[in-house]
Amino acid sequence: MSPFLSVLRSVVLWLCASLFVAGIAIVRPKRLYGLWGNAVPRLRDARRELLALGVVLLVSAVGRGSLQTISELFGLRLTGFIWALEGNFVAWLQQAFATPELTMYFSSVYVYGYAFLLAFPFLAYLALPKTTTLRRLLVAYAFNYAIGLALYTAVFAHGPRNLNVGTSLLYTHNPEFSALTSAVNETTNVFPSLHTSLSVTVAAFAVLTREEYPLWTPLAVWLAGSVVIATMYLGIHWLTDVIGGTVLALGCVYLSYRIVDPDEAA
Amino acid sequence: MTRPISRRRALAGFGAVAASGGCLGRSRNLAGRGTTSQLTLQIDAVPADRDPNAIRIARHLAENLKTVGIDARINTLDRTTLWRKVLINQNFDAYVGQFLEPKPFDPDAMYALTHSRFAPEVGRQNPFGFADLNGVDEELERQRRAEPDRREAVADLQRSLTELQPFTVVAFPDPLTAIREERFEGWSQGQPLTVSGLLSLDRTDAADGSTGGGGSADGGGSTDGGEFLDDGGNATAAAEELFAGDDAEASATLRLVTTDSGITENWNPIAAEYRRQGTFTSLLYDRLVVIDSGDVVPWLATDWERVGPETVEVSLRDATWHDGEPLTADDVAFTYEFLRDTSMGSMETPVPTPRFRGRSSVVESALAVDDRTVRLGVENVNRAVVVRALRVPILPAHVWSDRTEAATIAGFEFDAETTEALVSPNEDPVGSGPIRFVEATAEESAVFERNPDHFLVRAETGGDGASADAAAGVPERFRGKPAFDRLEVGVVPSDIAAVQMVGDGFADATVSTLGPDAIPRIGREADARLVTGRSGAFYHVGYNVRRAPLSNPRFRGVLASLIDKESLVEEAFDGYAEPASSPLAASPSWVPDGLRWDERSVDPVHPFAGDAGTGSLDAERARDLLRDAGYRFDDEGRLLARQQ
After folding, report:
1. How many CA atoms lie within 13 A of B496 on its CB side?
2. Minimal CA separation from A186 to chain B, in Å
3. Segments forming the whole domain that contains residue A217
4. Mutate which of B51, B60, B74, B517 to disrupt the A interface (most A C-beta within 10 Å)?
5. For chain A, what is the largest distance between any 2 Cα atoms, rounded to a whole number of angstroms?
6. Domain end: B423, B446, B481, which one?
């Protein structure tokens, strides 16, 4: 549908522009030149991890509908439980801090900042001579999606805006975004917050590899922190989802370090 | 009062006492008694994306229940799942929903909703499990038979229902619709999104020619995203070209948007869990008569006559099914039998439909006299009830007679009381109505086209002579309709997105409920306009009276006093609703003086236990109401209930 195409187009354009600028500023032209001729062998080196991530994404894309049906029929219905657990925290957050400027900032971060945050590490770690970090990142992403999908199936819950706890700041002010988010997500997939878990994953990698890209680390942490707050500020996720997402992220990063061995032939 | 002791601890104590040679008899008496604990109530509702008003009512009630010491939990479900839970499985405590009549309705609608004879059935008929033999049942029968004046019986019925509260009426919402008049006009004739509303639409010049564009969206101007969205303008322009191309092929396509995906995956007119008001299935399946602004309009029937107190003879129009088969009196006779028993006698007990039960219960037998005449054996009821019984979708016997066996999955029967007809999605629906099914993508869109063989169309093309009679008795504004060649129903994620689609010119009207956050947006969109009418679809809280303490009318009465209807109308509906006590409040002439809301700000029967209009509950007053009804609290103020 056309609102979907228009948002998708602006996200892709923004992504290309921001990757170009950040590539020059953070990865540096020298390393980017190094990609010429090296990118293909490095990707081949990470083929198993790429394949794993590809399979997970494919299963998620193909099976989402039927898993959603299973979740609807048999999933644990936790909306009321989560609300009882944390109450109106999200509504309080909005009441205490919401301003039109902040809403604009967090809406942009939620869509554009998040896209950049996920895409940039691919480029940055592919530019590294050793593929260990790249492979770890791919494995961590794959785990995030796979475990996320399993939890989405097991848990059937709606986000705070759907309980009218706080308002849906994102969609009230930018309904066109809902065309994009509804195409890639179900409204009942709130626990855990995958926005949170993937952002925290990227931030964790940025901290762990701070020697390679010292400029990236504070930027990644800032962006990830903003995305995490945005998920609640915009009324999309519960605090519980964010905590769940953070735990998931740290677990996935740990697993990726356990699984991908740096000494393996690169 | 002490805190409740768990059964395990009680048993341990029992053991200790037994071991020490204490008084066994006393201990047995104590340990054998069930224990009490805090009452838990679950309130089911659809999420705000689907219905922004229902969730606000559920929140209001849940918060007030917590205040008086009841552990209230909200459970959000998608619409189909909610209805499956409430109407089919009946395993709920309370739900918030709408009564599914789009327009003010005849009092006989309460027959199916509250008569005790339907309590054991599954479907929309009496989902509460309510039974009041000498009051409500008797009044329901009386209003069916009273002729000519039903007023007294209907007034008594409302008094009983408001006193006993099998469900609590909250408010009648204004049926708000965002429309754009660029391509179609005539929206404001009553409610546009009903069968008669959609058939009343006329094309504008823009819809006829090639100027009907995909939208006059001004791109970046309509977005609040600032600089990040500057590219949006170009993208929208590109999409606009794309849509304009489509329009050149199908010049008169009516495009509607909804948040309800039911019509994109299920076209079964009798499936209670998928149909909301059944507007699209009513356009697919003709009825014998329709009601148009209070008048009975002969539709599939050219005429009907009461030939005896218990016999109605119906003459049919010349009509064909969408698959080309002729529609005959046998189809009509089949339909009435089928609605009463979808197994057509092949099962041990009849399996009635989960919709139209009040109507099908009137018609006891149906016989095709000849190809064009059906004789219906009806109960001795008044005219209004007979007319209502004539308003059921007529189904093709050659399609539905294959769906009478028990439903199975891979050969396994799940439930002896479920026929294939009840669970069939009815793909490629074969009806006789003014629109035909074309295609659909689940959860995205459904496409219909105008049925060129329908009598409304034939009436236009004929001019004079025999074919001019094709639509005899049908009002002028329906002739030659529908005005659209195609009808596209698109699914959008929320009411706000729906309004945005209309504002940007990608849709002509919204179908589903609009919430208070969506309404200001209509004002901001230059080409969108808000229309409204009168609705019969009252919001209510329904109780499962099979479950204690909801089985107690005194308890339900207190629950009704926990709802501040006035403040809900102001806050949840932004004023776009009328608070009400009686389910018939949309037809004020039926409502007795004592049950009218009028200028007062509190419910006439169960006034809000607090400061009405402000939403602030007086917890002590509410607790006193519960104490008066015989309920008890522990020292932490929690309402105690015996464990089930």
Report:
1. 22
2. 10
3. 2-259
4. B74
5. 56
6. B423
